[in-house]
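Session log. Operator J.P. requested a structure for one protein chain; no other inputs attached. Running the standard single-chain path with token output.
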Amino acid sequence: MSVRRFLTGAVGAAALVLGMTVSTAPGAAADPCGFYETGSDAYYNHCTDDGSHVVIEVEVWGPNYERCVVPGVTWLGSADEIDGAHYVGRTC
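Structure written below.
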């Protein structure tokens, strides 16, 4: 089982193992904060109340790349092409 499929099937358990916090924004119970996948698509949900834009690193097969995301859900691409994404600690 790939790491991506493990995280998709057990986001909460993986978050505990990796020491990450997974929560949902008020009114967005279906979309967890941070990286998540549906059956076919990969997303990053930047949960914030301050309107900040943040830089995430998108993990792909090949060189990873950085992307600036705004508050809310950002579509990253096909779940087959995206292996994960995480906040890198700076705004944009």
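Operator note: DSSP finds two helices and six strands in the chain.
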